Each structure stands twice: as C-alpha cells, then as structure tokens.
UniProtKB/TrEMBL annotation:
This is Putative mannosyltransferase. InterPro entries: Glyco_trans_1, Glyco_trans_4-like_N. Residues 207-370 form the Glycosyl transferase family domain. GO terms for molecular function: glycosyltransferase activity. It comes from Sulfurihydrogenibium yellowstonense SS-5.
Amino acid sequence: MGSKKMKIGVVFDGDLQVGGGFQYQRTVLNLIRDLKDKYEFVVFTFSPENEKYLRTMEFKTIILKRKILDKIKRLTLRLDAFSFLLTKVNLVCDFEKHLEQEDIDLVYFLQPSGLALDLLKHNYIITVWDLCHRDYPEFPEVNFNKEFERREFFYTRALKKAVAIISDSETGKNNIIRRYGIDLDRVYVLPFLPSTNIYIKNDMNVKEKYGITTEYYIYYPAQFWAHKNHVYIIDSIALLKNKGIYLTAVFSGSDKGNLNHVLEYARKKRVIDLIKYIGFVPDEDIYSLYKNALALVMPTYFGPTNIPPLEAFAIGTPVIYPDLPGLKEQVGDAALLVDLNKPETLATHLENLINSEKLRQGLIEKGRNRLDEINNVNRISVLESIFSDYEAKLKCWKIK
C-alpha cells in the first residue's frame, strides 16, 4: 500500500477588510498551492466569504463556527488547574475535533491565533507579524483594556511549543528570540510580498472618481489605528498649505476607532478640505490609486515590515517611510525617510518630489531594484524545509 501525503491544516483566520493581514495570508496560500504535489492541504476558516475565495484556489475548505459552549471549553482548557483533568476525559475544543476528523498531521496558523493555545494533540507552526506591543506599549490598541497582557499571555505560551515560528524579517526574528527565549533554529524568516490585487491593472481616473481637486495627491492605505499616525500627514499638509502648496491626502482603510479623531484633527488644522477618506477600496481601484499618487506616505510606528511599500515599489510609486529601526531596513535606499517627531521633514520631501522629476524617477528605479532583492528570497524552500523536517520526525509515531 502506497504511503499517503502528510496532511497540513492551514488556518486562514481573517477577512477581506482586515488589510495587510488578509493580504499576507492570501499571498502565503498562493505559495503553498505550489506544494500540493508533495503535501495535502485543508484550509480552515471562520468566514463564509473566505470559503468562496478558497474554492477558487481549489483548496478543500472547512468552515469553523464560533460557539459559546466551545469558547467556555477553550478558556477552561487554558487554566492549568483544570487542563490535566479535562485531558483525562478527552475533552477537546471543536477545532481539534475537526483536525482529528480530517487526520491532520500539522497545523499552520497564517496569523497569531488563540486556537494554538487549545491544541492538545496536534503540533503547529505559528506566524508572528510583529511584537509592537513591546516596541511601543503606549499606544491604546496594544495596551488598554488588558490588550498588552493578552498578547504577552499568548506569545509566552504559544511560541515555545511551536514546531516553527514564521517571522517577516530578521529584525522580527531577533526580537522573538531575545524577548521570549526561543531557540534560533525554530524561527524562520518569510518576508512579505506585495499583495496579488495590485497587479490588477485598471487604468482609471481616480481623481474624478474620488473627487480629488488638487494637482497632486499622496496615498496612505491603512486602517485607522492610532499607531498609523495619520495626524503626522495632516501636520505636513498644513505646513505645505501655509506655503501656498495644496496637496490632497487620500486615506483608505477601515475605521478601528481613530477615524473621528483624525478628521477632527484635520478640521483643527484647517485642512479638512485636503483630506479624502475613501473607506474600503475595491481591488480594481488599487493600482490606479498608487500609480497616480505623488507618493505613498506611510508614517506608521509599527513594523518592522509592512506591505504597502512593496506594493508601491511594484507599481512604480515613490515611497516615504519612517526613519525607524527595522522599518528603514525594509526599504533600504529606495525610500525617502522621515523623522516622525518633525512633520517638516515630510513637507520638505513632498515639495522636492513636486519640483524634481529626476528625484521621482530615481526613487521609482530604486524601488524596483529593492523589490527584486526581496523577491529573490526563496519562500517556497523555507516552507518546504519546515514541512520536510517535521515529516521526517512524524514517522517516529505515525504511519502514513
């Protein structure tokens, strides 16, 4: 009897409007699709909308349901005082029941997921996007309402049990090892790629569609969290306005609680007419929004890597990015760097871009070169090495 392929359960736990997180997961799914000849994949998701997308990629997909009783069971399993007793009566969460039914050998979480804490009989790979609650604990979204403690609880427990940990960069890898005492050979780097939707070339008049009346605009696709630092752009736009330079800032992305603050700040600075909030953008508009922008401006505090600079590099749009550790390493010499304490540095860069086509074209060329360097990383081989190493050990206790 021929041996069966190792079966990997992939958890796709996001939705279309999550932003970069969703795009990252979609990119990884495209990568593992190339490994279907060697391994069998079953994708688990909570979203029916994701199921429609996954079926177009020809993955077997199982929809998970969020149940109150299962949530209670999961929370109980996380209490050390009860977990040993519950394992004796074979009490497992619904997710693990699905894993058993599908005969899954290894679980791959495409994002940090609390489900990893509930697994009693399955090994897993975990993805860590960032540790920004440790980099900048002052921001409300990673600190208030016990969010800092929740993240620490998760990473402290989940990382040390993982078969492998996926990080987005060498900076991220080093932070994982240093902060949580993880062995060096358990952490792998899988750099971000531009999202696939930017390659939908749909040349359109975005200025007309979105009511942009100034000659130039800058683009910032980001959810409205405090750490995204939209107010920095507003300060710079106000400085330019005082010099008689009128530039529109186009913001896209869902509101995570900070949108009203950003708009009120723009009113206070008397530049609300130069701010265009366009909400969630359909895939077919993204290419033109980037292509026609004076620059992608992304003054975020969080990193160390982000997807929009890669998208801008791919399309041919200059990038303006923070001069912060980790973030500046992502872009190399292919971006103009700004001091987040000095909005005048952004204002100066924007004025220079308006006045110098040579500067603009030079940045576009450097961006393409930087993206080529990033694309030269063989991401498939990284995943294949993790899977094959685990498969060699799996036969010690399971016959395929």
